[in-house]
# Entry
Amino acid sequence: MKHTGGCLCGQYSFATELDPMLVIQCNCTKCRKLSGSYQIGCLYSVEEIEEKGATTTYEFEGGSGFINTVHFCTQCHVRCKTHPAPEVMEGMVGIPLGIFDTAKNLSPKVEIWTSEKLPFLKTDDCVSESFEDSGIAERLNALLENLESR
Ligand SMILES: [Zn+2]
Ligand SMILES: [Zn+2]
# Structure
């Protein structure tokens, strides 16, 4: 497997043969509260991920105004994945970079909501595109461009 990962207690785990379609940093206030710091999500198609373990869910309205569904481990309550609103990215799943065993091999290429970015966070060299808002159209373009280099 190319990437594996899971929650803190190990009840939830995942594995995939592929690199993410896109690694995206979201600086919005909601993601900040949700993650306790800032959110870096690794996007996959749901069929590209093998999963084990039970999760419990919470729904919230994202910065774009659509409903995202977040999954947490039922035991340690670590955030395991987010299903973005189908209106934005149907059939996709975002796995937090922090729960990858292979996290050191990944870095964000795109960031969104820089208007809400914490001042001490510099723009990392790895980030090639930044958007002040949700940047939905541009985000999809970046995703498609990235698919070719997987
Ligand atoms: Zn757990
Ligand atoms: Zn966000």
